[in-house]
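Figure 3 (text version): structure tokens given as input.
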């Protein structure tokens, strides 16, 4: 949402649709995402906030010039600030937003374990990791989840991450299941991207999709959707 009111309306709609897991991060909107979730929860009774499962992440700087990374002291400090914004005593899950090559993963795992022992975190996992990193983490900590980009246009987790999750009993959250909007059918060959779409605002992560093979695949997807009488998404 662009503001708290819009965010609140989106969360109302999510709740009405049966969505009970809210996944956020301290860096989303420089803390605004967590604050808006907290504001929304404070307006609800126990029949709502006792059902909502909160997951948040840390790694990125919250504002320009601020620190980042997974040093144990920072992880603990950032969780405290996240809990304050969320108006919560604990989160069900806490994830590093990315891999920190400057801090041994065993140190970060120790910080997460301490937060679990304090009752402030239910479980912890990893996000944006490859197979090598996931294996390294599983050797030193009780990481229980992975969250990576995964879609018809990004099959990378199938190589190592999903098999490792299956082998070790980890949960997996796919993010960007529509590949930044590319799987909705809104981007077509030889056509300008729709005004206000991600390809007009932040195209860099998706420029490699501008490829004839991808457009051929999207044509096939559109045909399969039409056969079923559903949207491409």
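Below: residues designed for each position.
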């Amino acid at each position: 949402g662009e503001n708290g009111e819009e965010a609140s309306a989106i969360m109302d709609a999510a709740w009405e649709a049966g969505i009970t897991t809210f996944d956020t991060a301290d860096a989303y909107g420089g803390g605004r995402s967590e604050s808006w979730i907290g504001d929304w929860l404070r307006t609800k009774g126990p029949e709502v906030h006792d059902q909502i499962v909160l997951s948040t992440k840390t790694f990125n700087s919250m504002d320009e010039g601020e620190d980042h990374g997974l040093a144990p002291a920072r992880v603990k400090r950032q969780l405290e600030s996240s809990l304050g914004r969320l108006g919560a005593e604990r989160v069900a899950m806490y994830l590093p937003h990315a891999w920190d090559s400057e801090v041994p993963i065993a140190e970060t795992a120790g910080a997460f374990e301490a937060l679990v022992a304090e009752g402030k975190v239910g479980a912890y996992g990893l996000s944006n990791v490859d197979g090598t990193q996931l294996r390294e983490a599983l050797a030193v900590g009780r990481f229980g989840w992975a969250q990576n980009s995964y879609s018809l246009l990004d099959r990378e987790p199938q190589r190592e991450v999903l098999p490792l999750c299956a082998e070790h009993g980890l949960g997996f959250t796919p993010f960007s299941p529509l590949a930044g909007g590319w799987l909705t059918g809104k981007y077509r060959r030889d056509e300008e991207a729709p005004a206000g779409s991600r390809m007009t605002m932040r195209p860099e992560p998706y420029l490699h999709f501008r490829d004839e093979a991808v457009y051929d695949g999207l044509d096939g997807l559109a045909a399969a959707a039409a056969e079923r009488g559903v949207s491409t998404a």
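The CA atoms of residues 151 and 177 lie 5 Å apart.
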